[in-house]
Amino acid sequence: MRTIGDWQNICQRLLGFIPRPQDFNRSSLKVTALNVHMLEQLQLPDLATQDMINQMARCYMFWMIAGMMMVDTSGNYLKLMYLPMLEDLNVVSSYSWGSATLACLYRFLCKASQSNQNEIAGFLPLLQIWA
């Protein structure tokens, strides 16, 4: 189990910023923390290094994966477990993100069918198209 300090180091290395401790909830990061960082870096400088470009690319990919494709019921937090998968950008395209998104949606549909559950999560546009 990673600590907040571990996640801060991973965020600094992969995303280019260190979130505040209050931006974490266990192993999740507040959406607003990533959004603020991305807005601050909206336009990369002309002399941006390859590391800066890669970090911003990871920010967008992380937001798409954790904030849209595999979103949970909180809606306010991004699961950090997806972030280490973005470390090597050369292999990210080899992952089966579509299958993972579908599996996540199936899992949340199963959870939503339980009598004590009143919310649904997952990539709901896929469910709308499918229906």
Automatic annotation (TrEMBL):
Aminotransferase-like plant mobile domain location is 8-131
**Source organism superkingdom:** Eukaryota
Database matches in Pfam families: PMD
InterPro entries on file: AminoTfrase-like_pln_mobile, MAIN-like
The transmembrane residues are 60-78, 90-109
* The keyword Isomerase is annotated on this UniProt entry: no
Record keywords, A-Z? Membrane, Transmembrane, Transmembrane helix
Q: Is Nucleotide-binding included in the keywords of this UniProt record?
A: no
Protein name per the record: Aminotransferase-like plant mobile domain-containing protein
Organism whose genome encodes this protein? Solanum stoloniferum
